[in-house]
Design brief:
By secondary structure, the chain is an alpha+beta fold. It is built from five helices and nine strands; from the N terminus they run H-E-H-E-H-E-E-E-E-E-E-E-H-H.
Length: 167
């Protein structure tokens, strides 16, 4: 795995522990996705942010508590890769993004050339310790499938690292 400086490791760990504590405190279902999910399964590229899906319609108290740390949103975004409602948080110098699973998020599949519904099955999450914090992560096979559809350079790197030793 990529070796982070002690400062980077502490920043990521602190931010991750902070948001997980709030999610649990408010009993909000969540699923880690993106680069941190890939890292939880053995990928080792550098993280840009920490990505989660949460159901905003069941997270009113959580959203109110994190409001002082929100740098963008919640707002709807439609771009070339995603069509979703999300928000950005900055905590101790670490960016955290929360995508809303309750508003039918979609992603554009480079593999098929069409939009796909992003289904988040919270009950199927895998519990993994990453950066010293126990988190609920998108299942590995679903993560690989999702990243294959997205087909961005970072996704292809993650897929290669995740499947390197898989028969």
């Amino acid at each position: 795995m990529k070796s982070y400086s002690e400062e980077d490791w502490q920043r990521i760990s602190r931010a991750l522990a902070w948001i997980i504590e709030r999610l649990r405190q408010h009993d909000v279902a969540y699923q880690v996705v993106g680069g941190l999910a890939a890292r939880a399964y053995g990928a080792h590229r550098s993280l840009v942010d920490i990505d989660f899906y949460v159901p905003f319609d069941k997270a009113t108290a959580l959203l109110e508590e994190v409001r002082p740390f929100i740098t963008r949103g919640p707002e709807h975004h439609t771009g070339d890769k995603w069509d979703l409602t999300y928000l950005k948080i900055e905590y101790c110098g670490q960016r955290i993004e929360l995508g809303d699973s309750s508003t039918t998020p979609r992603y554009f599949s480079a593999a098929s050339g069409c939009w796909k519904r992003q289904r988040i099955e919270y009950e199927d999450s895998t519990s993994v310790c990453v950066f010293g914090v126990e988190v609920e992560v998108m299942p590995k096979d679903e993560l690989i499938r999702y990243k294959r559809h997205l087909g961005r350079e970072v996704d292809l790197i993650d897929i290669e690292q995740l499947t390197k030793n898989t028969p």
